[in-house]
Amino acid sequence: MKNENLENKLEDLRENISETSETSNEEVKELNNNSEKDPIKDLEKKIEELNDKLLRSLAESQNLRKIHDKEKEDLIKFSSSNFAREVLSIADNLERAFDLLKNNTEFNNDKFKDVKIGIELIEKELINSFERNGIKSIDSLGKKFDPNYHQALNEFESDKEEGTIVNEIQKGYMLYDRLLRPAMVSISKKKKDSTK
Questions:
Q1: Domain spans of the chain?
Q2: Mind listing the pLDDT tens digit for each residue in 88-120?
Q3: SS3 assignment, position 122
Q4: What percent of the chain has pLDDT over 70?
Q5: Radius of gyration (Cα) for the chain, nearest Å?
Q6: Cα dihedral angle (96, 98, 104, 110), rounded to 10 degrees?
Q7: What is the DSSP letter of 190?
Q8: In this predicted model, what pLDDT tens digit does every residue of 9-22 receive, in sequence order?
Q9: What integer pLDDT is reported at residue 33 of this predicted model?
Q10: Using an 8 Å Cβ cutoff, are 150 and 182 in contact?
Q11: Which residues contact 95 (CB under 8 A, 6 or more apart)?
Q12: In terms of Cα–Cα distance, which of 188, 79, 95 is closest to 137?
């Protein structure tokens, strides 16, 4: 019995040694295969990966620079928007005064000729100054109402297509491509049928 136990144990050991040697042989083969790889190819692959990372970093840096430049440009362009809004109210009051002088028959004599010429020069210079600084008036009369540029204050029955601007109460202005102030307008609406 003791002999049988010993033989069984010996047989088990032989099997374990056989399995272990097979596993070791596979590991040795794998190590040999890895060492057979060309170290130059490994280095070339690493260089390629590093180049890819570098190009991505450069592209990201360039994109950030463009974003920064755009924000800087916008800051410079639109930093004067509060001042421009305040100047617009002065321009509105000047325009009202100009219209009063131009349209009033009392001021159509020679006494006020020089005053009218002076006012027209001031008006032209103000418009030129606005344009040099990127401020442009919104052309509204006869156009279709657009809530992005207009603010409707009232509606009038009209023969014109519904939603057409028939009166401009206060001019609207753009600062470059941004709305500085919407135009205050009156829009047309359909006439009511009196036959009903």
A1: 135-191
A2: 888 888 888 888 877 788 877 888 788 888 888
A3: helix
A4: 80
A5: 42
A6: 160
A7: P
A8: 667 766 666 665 55
A9: 56
A10: yes
A11: 123, 171
A12: 95
The model's pLDDT over 34-50, given as tens digits with 9 standing for 90+, comes to 555 678 888 889 999 99
What is the β-pairing status of strands 165-170 and 173-175? unpaired
Buried residues in 46-71 as b, exposed as e (16+ CB within 10 A): eeeeeeeeeeeeeeeeeeeeeeeeee
**Which tokens in the block code for residue 31?**
């190590």
Q: Which CATH number describes the domain made up of 135-191? A: 2.30.22.10
Give the number of residues written for the chain: 196
Residue 188, C-beta contacts closer than 8 angstroms, at least 6 positions apart: 155, 156, 157, 158, 160, 161, 162, 163, 164, 165, 166
Q: Is residue 73 over pLDDT 80?
A: yes
For the record, the structure tokens of 178 come out as 């941004």
